[in-house]
Amino acid sequence: MERHPETGRLETESERVDRNLGELLVELRVALPGVQVLFAFLLVVPFNQRFASVSSFDKTVYFVTLLCTLAASLFLIAPSVHHRISFRLQDKEHIVLVANRLAIFGLGFLAVAMTGVILLVTDFLFGTGTTVATTTLVAAAFALLWYAIPVRRRQMGKRRDRAAS
Prior knowledge:
Order of helices and strands: HHHH
Largest sheet: none
Oligomer: single chain
Structural class: mainly alpha
Distance between the termini: 24 Å
Radius of gyration: 20 Å
Number of helices: 4
């Protein structure tokens, strides 16, 4: 068995695709419970007696956050549906490529939804200064930890690969 040209692992192309799909499914299993809990929380909020007294701004933030949570659920569950529908069609590499994109979009919507919940709760409990500071820090943390660091690492790897060629 030879090393795979992209990964350097001792694996065939089909083994690489199988491994990639397995890794992706494990990652989705980590994200989905959080999305489901957040969605359940948001579905209950408007039925709270105090919700009627929240500002128009808070109602808008709530609705946008609810829609982002719905979008996160949609994108993060879609890979499972694609896999089920394409089962046994020998198209796993395509499923992995599409599922990866769907997961990235889904996690983006999840980050926006979680930031929206922080905005909503903080605005309800505290003043504008605390709300702006907290929401900005949370959004920056998501942007940095979920996107900027891995994207930078990916770009550095591509530069390193081009320099080695």
